[in-house]
Amino acid sequence: MRFPASTPQPRSAVSDQPGGRPPGRAGGGRRVLCAAAAAAVVAVLASGCSSGSNGGNVQRVSPGVAQSSESTSADGTSWSMRARNVDLTITDAAVHLGAAGTARLEFTVDNKGPVTEHLGMVSVPGLGQANLVGSTGPVNALSTAGIMIDSESSATFGTAAPAVALPSAKGLTAGGTTPVLLEFGIAGLVHLTVPVLAG
Question: Of 3, 82, 136, 151, most Cβ neighbours within 10 A?
Fold first, then answer.
């Protein structure tokens, strides 16, 4: 008995591939995933470079690197510091004795740093905390953070605002020296030894 010849069936493209995948589909998928991963890596690197550039503009000095100097003469003490987000200079710092047992600390602060500074506290060991007097503002105004010193600006503390009035002149003698502590919002605590001057 004759059986009719079977009609050849086309080979299935799916059945010839492992797992039943059409040819080229697995390789194409891998290529797409690799391209996406490469794009993500490039994006991350670009983001890191961008943030590093901005961070450099703000910091100006590498983290952990600090440079400071201090010098004292008969007319006043000068001090400077460069660190992360800090480029601060104090010049001609001296205590001036006034009438009726009063005294004031005179000096100039130059803030070349990238951020605003605040002088938050001044004290003299043995005398206590000084009274900070801010200007009428907005430059060198007094707030809860202290006396504001904008980036790329300076503040001169003298007889008029801004000013630093010591609680008293007890124990201070013209021609001598005295330790002074100044606390800044960014630069932190600064220890100075300044001359005491008459008038």
Answer: 82
Angle at 149 between CA 143 and CA 151, to 5 degrees: 130
**In terms of residues, how long is the chain?**
199
For the chain, the three-class secondary structure string (H helix, E strand, C coil) is CCCCCCCCCCCCCCCCCHHHCCCCHHHHHHHHHHHHHHHHHHHHHHHHHHHHHHHHHHHCCCCCCCEEEEEECCCCEEEEEEECCEEEEEEEEEEEECHHHCEEEEEEEEECCCCCEEEEEEEECCCEECEEECECCCCCEEECCEEEECCCEEEEECCCCCEEECCCCCCCCCCCEEEEEEEECCCEEEEEEEEEEEC
pLDDT tens digits for 96-120?
A: 999 889 999 999 999 999 999 999 9
